## 1
Amino acid sequence: MKSNIKYKRVLLKISGEGFGNENGRGLETETFAALAKEIQNISTTGVELAIVVGGGNIIRGAKFGSAGKSRVQADQVGMIATAINALLLQDILEGFDIKARVVSAIEIKNITESFVLRNCLQYLKEKVVVIFAGGTGNPYFTTDTAAALRAIEIGADVMLKATRVDGVYSDDPLKNASAKLYKKLTYMDVLNKQLGVMDLTAISLSMENKLPIIVFNMNKRENIKKAIMGEPIGTYIGA
């Protein structure tokens, strides 16, 4: 099994909405458990897995900040929201006998570990799932940018961006039934077409460091495993 995987070290990006209800809000135990089962399913492959979680199911800093509130403070609250998701995911993973560590870009003393790259690399070598919380630790940066940054820092072979649709479309497929699914795109395609799958900073970072991205539907069983095995799913974004 181990010799068949295409990507040996993977960064999985999960938006906060992925932990919520059908509207992407709140905290749904079933969604955490479903993800844990998928991760358990790939644990025998030998993959080294890191996860960046968003917090949009609890609060979106940019939206809250645009409502006349302090954007900096709103983003800080959003960072705390990612830690809530990360800690819940850790607890559920450990219930499946999967070792996991929550590493935060913001200090949450006695609850999470602070980000130290050397420690994270050691955890990955030991096949411990590393869950990154707190975004980049700075306001005005999305968790997509945090995912690209962490993927590059840990030397990930690929970034997997989990969504609720099958990949990147020409338009919102939930609103436009005629939207076209792209199987493969270049970084420049994403930028020029303004597809909005990730923010410009995340795409630019990925392009500069030649980090491939696979956008896929997290609600379809075994899609994470298929991705790390190199099976063609979702949309591949690369050079």
## 2
Amino acid sequence: MSDRARGRPARPLNLSLKHLRAAREVAALGSFTAAAVNLAMTQPGVSRLVAQVERDLGIPLFLRSTRTVTLTGPGRDFLEAAGRFLDDLDSQVAHARGLGGQLRGRLVISSLLSLTHHLVPGALAAYRRDHPGVEVHMREGLGSEVYEDVRSGIADFGLGNATGLGPEIVAEDAVRESCLVVLPSGHPLASQASVALRDVAREPLVSLPVGSGLRRLMDGVAAAHGLTLSHMTVVEQFGSLLDFVAAGLGLAIVPPTALPPRLPRTLKARPVVSPAIVREIGILRLRTRPLSPAAIGFLDVFRPRFIQAVPRPQPRP
């Protein structure tokens, strides 16, 4: 029987903001592990905080199984109210800090490997000059890894493939770019203004692993036109692609955003045509998760650079 039912005054809650944030993250992400990563805590630490909330309230917030974590009815009601309180508090804190011109906190960005070489560092340097108090963590990976980082809540947002997304993910500022073939300057195809995909298919390629979204896109376009690409050398990093091409080990198909502003004289880049290989990339975020002030500040710097840097697809000849 509860204290109220016995006629005694209710026991005051002894919960901190840390307790409420832990419970809210578990509810939002449906995972103690993802909540722990997002809060920079251990999973047992998050579990202890949530258990303390449940003990203080006298109700279970979650139904736990080996695979899923779901809210109970009372847990949903309590965390909706707690969430509104935390959102209001965060807004007031962000406003107060903004008055002093300083954003603070922790920002986790998950990005395709191709974008972290040139686009992200420049934007981050400009952001850091205005907001030196924000701790930034970069997670680099393949398209599937960026998607999972955003879906699980590990990352505040992602820079990744804007196609084939689930309903829980929103892609903003999506742009399309046509891929190029990078080849040694002395290669016979380097003298052409553009290179047909059928000619690329006759050459050995230096490529990313089969799990890469770019690799699947290349193979899919080729197969749709009766072609098979020859991936003779597989590397893990975009930076390695150029080194291996320069060494004469093959050609590489890459998006323009993966290339440095100036290629070495030993390399040339030409558009792939007949057909073009076009990918769509954008800024990915959870539909139900508002961006933090730190994330909004970074994207204000990154967006114009991103949109301007991506060449538009060339019309088919």
## 3
Amino acid sequence: MRKLAIAALSFSGAILLACYILPGSWLPTAALVCVGAGAALLLLRRNWLRGFALAALGCAVGLGCFALHAHVTALPARQLDGQTRTIRAQLLRYPEDYGRYVRAEVRLDAEGLPKLHAFLYDNSGALRGAEPGQWLETEVKLARADRKYGESYKAYGARNIYLLATAKGEINLSVLEKSPRFWPTELNHRMVTLVKKLFPQDTAAFMRSLLLGDKTELYQDTEQQLAMSRAGLMHVVAVSGMHIAFLVGFLQMLLGRGRLSSLLALGLIWTFVLVTGANPSAVRAGVMQTLLLIAPLVKRENDPITSLSAALALILLHNPDAAASVGLQLSFASMAGILCFSQRLMEMTEEHFPHVQRNGLSRMAASAALNSLAVMPFTIPLMALHFGSIPLLSPLSNLLCMWAVSLCFAGGWLVCGVGLLSLRIGQWLGWLLAWPARWILLTARLIGSLSFSSLYLQHRLILFWLLGCYALFLGFRFLKGGAFRRLALPGLLSVLTLVILMNAVRLDYAGGRGTICVLDVGQGQCITVFAGAQTLMIDCGGQGTLDDAGETAGAYLLSCGRDRVDALILTHLDTDHCNGVETLMAMRPVQTLILPADADSDNGMRGTILAAAKRHNTHIVELAEDSELDLGEIRAQLFAPLPGTLGNDQGIAALVSLGDYDMLVTGDMGQKTEQALLERHPVRETELYIVGHHGSQYASSAVLLETIGADTAIVSCGYNSYGHPEEETLERIASYGYTVYRTDENGRIEIRIGNDYGTKEQRR
């Protein structure tokens, strides 16, 4: 069995290497080298070398599979990039309605086109109400799916999507063709509808995610999704081994352990996997549970390591690009952690706390907490890499909620079964089951609201601390003493050093005379100003990036030890200046929100922002006249929109002062409005200029640049189709002696103001 594990792990490792490190042109050569190495080792005829030979051959197969898969999927997609073609395609799932557009997963089947899966975007709404199995014809603009915002993007490939198609003409739909392969999708759709009817509105999105793995509505509730992420509870709504173990356990509880229950469980497992979308983590769990059930039937002992490695190899054999799936990586890392550490942790707990064994409730609670600890050694690096944060309190969250999760999952399917027979009785049972669901959601909000619930790695010292913790645990592993001591001591030292470090970071930002930071939020703007305990933020929005501007801003505040935002100023209500406000308010309290009075907002952001402010008890100031803002050492002159201005010009300009150090922010106003602003307000001798309109040629007039006489200019910009920043604008700014920094090239830019208000430090 372990030979299978060696072959599967080497195969999977080679695919991961090809996915993230090796250039595509190297793969054939690397595969041949591995074949040669494997053959040479076999020719030596040494038993102890056979494992290495098997690993080399496994690597060769993995590299070859990845290269072949790329040749038949990614390469044709790249060749079609930018073309306009008439396509014929079949709908594979029910279209997803996002309001302004509809997105559908389709399989292309037209002459001259590869038979690839694609996302079809429909702005006309013609696909609303369409069903899986229907064929369509339309003219589309094609784009490769492995690039997003100008950078490599692997998430679509991990879902077997290689093209993005935007409908340019009328969509002609055919009559629905029924097929058994669409039954799981249809059943999922019907179950989604049933769940909405059975459970109260405040818990329906959570129950839909828990039972069916469909997190669409949960993601629409920004505050709840963020709370669950920070509390470390998002894993409970990602279909995985936990859900399948619940199903099998419930069935065996009813039928007992035996051949019949095992066979029924196999059918139940794969029905559940297919209905929930067959995502990689669900398939992994299905394969492992299948091998576990089959082993006694064929009189073989199940080997968890072999099962885990075989499951990974099967998934990657079907789609090598699934190696880039974050869910897949976290799922396998979690399972590896449980296999390596969970049993040992339980044994140590029973040794030092024998009363844990006395009843099933305490044992179940301990198991939930210890499993959360067991997965952390392998999942923490992945979360740090992909999300830049670590949910520190996830063991506590699991301890408090896993009983309710198991109850909601098993009870939820029972309620659905009853609801199919009697909707009214099902709704009554759904009302009862909603209470443990509310407990989970409430716990997530309470734990997620704690400033230390998640650790953000934006400060480089935190990253060094994390690396030091791993070194500390490894070092204590080789010391004499009990196993519990070898874990408890480094754990306590890690917590102590983290507390000291976070206080040092807080004092660092509270010291000096102030810090100005322009965050990298893509094509948008978000500026923070610290002085003492006060925090001012100007704008919070961004586009052309995978990151939410509000989460970027909130993570930065938390990593700097800031408890709140004393005032948030929105220069205007364009999406790229304010679409992160709702998330920011969910992460950190905002005491005062200042925005232009009666500013245009045809994007709907005004209503969204004001509603969020009211939910969080934020004081709202709609600025109609010039005003001054006094936040201790931070002072700001706020210039209200000039009469008669519209659009970008109908915004707030701000002159922020830290002692004698001044910063001018003009938002997106144009050159004529800049000149009118200067005529109305005497702005002189400014040290820092935040370049207007992301470096557009229509902002940063010569009159403004000469008048304010700043020595530093910062352009907040990112991937965009406007050509920002314009070369003409950059040359004009440089010609007046400004030193120019750009967030798209320099990343986050910090300016630390020394005690004499003259010392500046640029930080990436």
